[in-house]
Q: What sequence folds into this?
């Protein structure tokens, strides 16, 4: 069962933040900043408000949000130390089943990405499969830093939308 | 942030069940049966009601609840296919770091336990460490089936209490 939007519009800020907690990885401040603007008429309106809060955040906060994301096929994934959402998404993309060669390739590209941009490679794993992600990574690696920052935040918005639509139902 | 008990007392049944969803592994029916008896004065009262709903359930439902639990150090854990709660609890018990010999011992004991009782070995992993669990398993294996059924349900109650107290705050 999912949580109802009408309830989400009515509960305390603390409970609202608790329900929205997983939408933006390790970043409850996003939900905190939109609690006051309730009620939201539908899930899209809530999602737009959350993304607007990210857009309005400081450069440091945006960087912190991006850095809250785990590497794909990274050490946290290997340790089983992902949020439940990330674990499910990486599995859906086929990233739970990787060959040693693929793992080595991910590690190498992830390291190059971090070294170039100062934050991890973020992609909406549920909208992409392993092969596409592996093909995309070198292309993204060639982008300008300001372009990658924008893409990372857009991907985070897509991730949040899928998580929100899973957790919340209208009505 | 945690969800507030006062909000839990006020929201729709669907949202109440969504918040309580993870307390009893894959068994939303437990929360469904106590939603009507709100409001609860404190978290203990809610927990007692949930456990009473389990006690009042049919023998088939109780068996289904126990069977919803993953084996410790089992195949689901290895596949990364646990609920987030189970994954966290098994990790807290030190079960994410097991030697091949320990894994083999768990698999052997788990299989013997299933064969004898018809349900998996359930223990509140957050209250026990790997060595204690491995020492306890052969002892529990020697119990009478009706005793193990009672112990399994009691352990499920303890697991649910820790999950509930993590997710819900009074006030």
A:
């Amino acid at each position: 069962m999912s949580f109802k939007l009408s309830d989400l519009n009515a509960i305390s800020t603390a409970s609202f933040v608790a329900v929205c907690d997983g939408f933006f990885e390790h970043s409850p401040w996003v939900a905190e900043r939109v609690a006051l603007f309730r009620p939201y008429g539908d899930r899209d309106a809530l999602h737009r408000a959350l993304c607007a809060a990210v857009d309005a955040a400081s450069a440091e906060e945006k960087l912190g949000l991006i850095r809250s994301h785990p590497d794909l096929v990274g050490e946290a994934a290997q340790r089983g130390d992902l949020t439940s959402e990330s674990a499910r998404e990486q599995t859906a993309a086929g990233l739970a089943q990787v060959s040693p060669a693929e793992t080595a390739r991910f590690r190498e590209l992830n390291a190059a990405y971090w070294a170039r941009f100062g934050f991890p490679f973020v992609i909406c794993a549920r909208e992409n499969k392993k092969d596409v992600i592996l093909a995309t990574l070198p292309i993204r690696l060639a982008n300008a830093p300001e372009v990658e920052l924008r893409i990372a935040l857009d991907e985070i918005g897509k991730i949040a939308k899928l998580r929100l639509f899973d957790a919340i139902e209208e009505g």
Remarks:
- Strands of chain B lie at 3-4, 168-169.
- The radius of gyration of chain B is 17 Å.
- The mean pLDDT of chain B is 94.
- The longest strand of chain B covers residues 3-4.
